[in-house]
Amino acid sequence: MQPRRAARLALALAVGAVAACHSGSRAAATELPAPVAGEARAPAGTDARAPFGTDARAPFGTDARAPVGTDSLEGIVRVVGIDALPVVTLVPDDASRSVTLDGPPSLRRVAGLRIAVVGERSGARLAVRRFTVLAANGVPATDGVLAADGDALVLVTSDGTRHRLVNPPPLLRSSVGHRAWVSGALDRAPVAYGIIE
Predict the structure, then answer these.
(1) Is 104 exposed, middle or buried (0-12, 13-18, 19+ CB in 10 A)?
(2) 131 has which bridge partners?
(3) Residue 20: CB partners within 8 Å, gap ≥ 6?
(4) Which residues pair with 117 in a beta bridge?
């Protein structure tokens, strides 16, 4: 065989081997094993390690390492600034830097009270999803909706528990259907109380 022809033949064999190798690796990368009965299978081209039905890619302009979800804090509510532009803040129990609360106007009605708040935090701000009054001046409080039960007045908490109030003051009696807080033991007259919304 002539040297030039032999060289061409060797080159053609090498190119064919490389093409076959690349073709095999592509097939291996896109081909998924058959799913087990009852098992969800990720669509071709997605990361099989990501939860099925979710987009594993981080939204544009965000840090993929940033946690996604909710934050919860407990602390004392403070309203600062002028009356026309009040700013509601929460001083956490650990005395760390206060957090500005973005939420419903009812947050202003719990100024001075200790609350638990749940929402999405971004830096020094928290977008409030919900909050619960925990205490007033260090005395444990119960947060719920006022309801009439015959001649009695009850405070219904978020879990559906009905607490009969002892000697409720006129303000609470006239606020049936409204959310309120009552501090002190519920088997005696309230130590303090207030209407939230």
Answers:
(1) middle
(2) 117
(3) none
(4) 73, 131
Ranges of residues in the chain with a pLDDT under 70 are 1-69
Joined tokens for residue 94: 């650990």
How is the chain split into domains, by residue range? 71-136, 139-195
Compute and round to an integer the Cα radius of gyration of the chain. 32
- Both tokens of 163, joined, read 């607490």
Domain covering 139-195: architecture = Beta Barrel (2.40)
**Cα–Cα nearest to 135, from 75, 73, 88:** 75
pLDDT by residue (tens digit) across 66-119?
Answer: 344 689 999 999 999 887 888 999 999 887 899 999 999 999 999 999 999 999
Q: What per-residue confidence (pLDDT) applies to 88? A: 96
The whole-number pLDDT of residue 69 equals 61
Beta partners for 147? 154
Q: Which residues pair with 79 in a beta bridge?
A: 88
**Mapping DSSP to helix (H, G, I), strand (E, B) and coil, where does residue 2 land?**
coil
Q: Is 139-195 the same fold as 71-136?
A: yes
**Residue 13 is which amino acid?**
L
Q: What is the CATH number of domain 71-136?
A: 2.40.50.430
What is the pTM for the complete model shown? Answer: 0.64
